[in-house]
Design brief:
The chain is an alpha+beta fold. The protein is built from nine helices and four strands. It is elongated.
């Protein structure tokens, strides 16, 4: 995720719920995100006004995940933060610092309440990407390509990946450097 790590467990929870359940945007009444207190101290922008503030906003990250069913680098734009639909959804998100969650796992508990009273809840103890919750190869490659495409051609990104994955056979690191700065 391109936001602060403190949002990742909640994002994993909401993205899993929206992928498994039929949750229509217009049916969402509220979203509660229970977090360890330090998370609430770091995510200091409940009503962000810029892309940078959005990275420090649980409300924006969750609203974006619900609305777009994904969170990528391109989600973090001033335009997306200020979008009326995003602003409306952010108002439904409440982050709650819960000292009872302190401990070795430091879980995040996310609850989505629908207007009809139905609730969906998910607890994530450690976000995807932790050593004990690794990304799949496909997830890793998708993330790499999403990041790399902003600065490298698809061909250069693939060549960089190939060189890195086969580093033991690379005889000249300058070729890798040249690819990364756009010389080849």
């Amino acid at each position: 995720m391109p936001s602060l790590r403190y949002t990742h467990a909640a994002l994993d929870a909401v993205l899993e719920l929206v992928s498994k359940e039929t949750i229509l945007i217009e049916d969402v009444e509220s979203i509660e995100v229970r977090v360890v207190p330090v998370t609430a101290q770091i995510l200091i922008h409940p009503n962000p006004r810029s892309a940078l503030e959005g990275k420090f906003s649980m409300e924006f990250c969750i609203a974006t995940a619900i609305l777009r069913k994904q969170v990528k680098l391109e989600s973090f734009t001033d335009e997306n933060v200020l979008n009326g639909g995003t602003q409306d959804m952010m108002k439904k998100v409440k982050m709650v610092a819960d000292p009872k969650l302190e401990g070795s796992e430091s879980p995040t508990v996310l609850k989505i309440r629908l207007k009809n009273g139905k609730e969906y809840s998910k607890q994530v103890n450690r976000p995807k990407g932790n050593p004990d919750v690794p990304m799949s190869r496909n997830e890793f490659l998708a993330k790499y390509r999403d990041c790399a495409r902003r600065v490298l051609s698809a061909d250069a990104a693939n060549r960089v990946l190939d060189m890195i994955e086969n580093m033991e056979s690379v005889t000249n690191l300058r070729k890798l450097g040249d690819l990364l700065i756009g010389y080849n």
